[in-house]
Amino acid sequence: MQSSLRFLKSYPALQIVAVLLVGFSLLSPYFLTTGNFEAMLGVNAVVLIAAIGMTVVFLAGGIDLSISTVISASAVIAGLVMAQSDSVVAGAVTAVVVGLLFGALNGVLIGYCRLTPFITTMATQLIARGIAFVLSQGIAVKGTPYWMLDFGFMVWLGIPAVTLVALGVVIASGVAMSQTDWGRHIMLVGSNAEAARHAGINTRFIDFSVYLFAGAMAGVAGFISIANLGNAIPGVGDTLLLMIIGAVVLGGTGMTGGEGSVERTLLGVAILAILTNGLNLLGIPFYDQLIIQGVLIFLGTWLAMRLGSTRST
């Protein structure tokens, strides 16, 4: 009994997931269907991958406002490469490299030049958006290889292939954060950067590395978005930033650093995915959904803080 209570306190968002699953299954006969769950999982793969990158940045005490438009830039450039080469591998490598370049730019400016994360990543956000629209001329990049299109529709063991990629990212990132010195150093820097510096941790490198990681995740997410949509869309990431940040916060990862985990973000994405899907099935208008999502983020944040303070006493 005590272990179950400790588990629930460690993952407060799990309670919200359970309530939403039960509620929507009672309100809509279509919610628990296989097709609905497959669609819900596939649509949210991009958000999950990007949210993992944002989680690591948050854990180090930073923020990355550029991650959504880096998704767009990565997708467009990868789409152009695939259209010319007809190579999915070349497209995948290109997307990740583009993400790494933007991540390295943020990392150098924030980690080594000590610029403010908010302003720096906002500037990078504008640059990435501009590049995406200039290179694509504001229209979808066509010419995606057929194998990539097929991959977007693949389902293995009831789970879309794009979702399996996202879950692989979650598992690998969770292991890195919990089992490596890099992950432990990120948590220390996020908790108390000055103490981490005195302990001999290279805080500048840690700051650089988390933005590099977030850039890589944006690149992967951009590539996966092509499989989801069939083409590279220059504005694919423009509406995702608030969902990415909302999922991380709703899962219980603090924006001040040192508190949270990759697993919590998985639950945060699940909450937004279930909520959006369920409200759509009920025919709730889009702007009413935004109000409900905002209230739920308030609730999830309060619950995480409440249980967090309970753990510390």
Could you characterize the architecture of this molecule?
By secondary structure, this protein is mainly α. It contains 15 helices and two strands. It has a two-stranded antiparallel ribbon with strand order 1-2. The mean pLDDT is 91.
Keywords:
mainly alpha; two-stranded antiparallel ribbon; 77% helix; single chain; 15 helices; ABC transporter involved in vitamin B12 uptake, BtuC; 313 residues
Helix content: over 70%
CATH class: Mainly Alpha
CATH topology: ABC transporter involved in vitamin B12 uptake, BtuC
* Average pLDDT level: 91
* Classification by helices and strands: mainly alpha
Number of domains: 1
Tell me the fraction of residues in β-strands, as a range. Answer: under 5%
Question: How far is the N terminus from the C terminus?
Answer: 19 Å
Number of helices: 15
**Uncertain runs:** none
Strand order of the largest sheet: 1-2
Please report the total strand number as a whole number.
2
**Radius of gyration (Å):** 19 Å
Biggest sheet, in brief?
A: 2 strands, antiparallel
- Note the overall shape: globular
The succession of helices and strands, N to C, reads: HHHHHHHHEEHHHHHHH
The CATH architecture: Orthogonal Bundle
